[in-house]
Amino acid sequence: MKKNYRGLLVFVSLLIAFLFIGNATVTYGKEIVRNDYFIQSTDDPEIRIYVREKYNNTTDPKRTGKAVLFCHGATYPGDTFDCPVEGYSWMDYAVNHGYVAYYLDIRGYGRSTRPVVMNEDANKNEPIVRFTAAMEDVDDVVDFIRKRTNVEKVSLIGWSWGTVISGGYATEHGDKVNKLVLYAPVYSHEVPAWTKNLQDPNNPDQIKPDIGAYRLVSEEAAKSRWGKQIVPEDKTEWREERVFKAWIDEIMANDPDRDKHSPPKFRAPNGVLIDIFYIFTKRPVYDASKITVPTLIIRGDDDPTATEPDAKGLMAEIKAPVKRYISIANGTHFVGLEKNRLQLFREVQTFLDE
Predict the structure, then answer these.
(1) Beta bridge partners of 233
(2) CA separation (Å) from 299 to 170, 171, 176, 241, 306?
(3) Residue 16: what are its φ and ψ, rounded to 5°?
(4) Strands 177-183 and 154-159: what pairing?
(5) CB 165 within 8 A of CB 177
(6) Fold of 6-353
(7) Which of 51, 185, 251, 261 is the most exposed place for a label (fewest CB within 10 A)?
């Protein structure tokens, strides 16, 4: 995947990352320290990857011996794992259990560099940032974490499309992965509701050619998508309004072009739609049978995107000697930000700590 000069580039990337750190260190109360880094991509000199680090201020990241990297999904960046509402940060939960926790924003998402075409009309260019490019970003960040913490292997937690990235990464770089958590996974399942709007009418086996480089997402669209998955009519039974608002405000704030639209919208790359089109027409984009590291598959029981048949089919494909499937009752695709989130956090933490 990388050229022979990767080692030199990684060293330079680490140096650049520290040069760009600025005033990025924040202490939360008396316990948790946050650092923000920008890692130079080793396959594209124009790309810098945003990485957030958190750890307990009584520990040295180089001595904990435990590091975990969260990988976001198709639309929403890594802020999802560090919601600013007390008790809702999954990163803080991991830190409080002895880990140095990280998340990255894949190129084109969140605080990471947006490819130049994202500054142009979306319809002028083809979809950008598929899972293969995302895996390059993960590899750069994993190498950064390994040097930063002195761990040989990093545990990965992927959410939604992030399970495609982290799962695919584990098939190629299993020597760098300690444990793998596939949260709300998508792998290979027929989902006509998703694919019918993406099909090329002249060639239904292929995605239509005019979906554009990126898409725009409003607050109302995000709220509606999530709300439709909540079973009780009273959405507050599963989701706190203040949590949704804090989460979406963080995401909106990351896009400097948000206010060019009315209502405000943030940009998300469309390369993922190609991956999803193949996945939801039963054509997986990576080979899960090559996953050999201990793996946990976990999902909300009411998730219409990461379905039970798809998750169990993925489970059957994985050849790891240790693998587990868990379903969280009364949870959607976004259960990590819902009232039942602690079930998710605890089950994942138990798996990581074993």
Answers:
(1) none
(2) 19, 21, 25, 22, 7
(3) -60, -40
(4) parallel
(5) no
(6) Rossmann fold (3.40.50)
(7) 261
Read out DSSP for 2-33? --TTHHHHHHHHHHHHHHT-SS--EEETTTEE
Q: Which two tokens stand for residue 40?
A: 């130079």
Number of Cβ atoms within 10 Å of the Cβ of 247: 22
Nearest of 43, 186, 12, 181 to residue 101 by alpha carbon: 181
Query: Omega into 263 within 30° of 0, i.e. cis?
Result: yes
C-alpha closest to that of 186 among 161, 158, 157, 156: 161
pTM: 0.92
Query: pLDDT at position 23, please?
Result: 35
Q: Which residues of the chain have pLDDT under 70?
A: 1-30
**Where are the alpha helices (H) located in 158-282, listed in sequence order?**
161-172, 192-195, 219-227, 241-253, 271-279
Structure confidence by residue, pLDDT tens digits, 207-229 = 999 999 999 999 999 999 999 99
Position 193 scores a pLDDT of 83
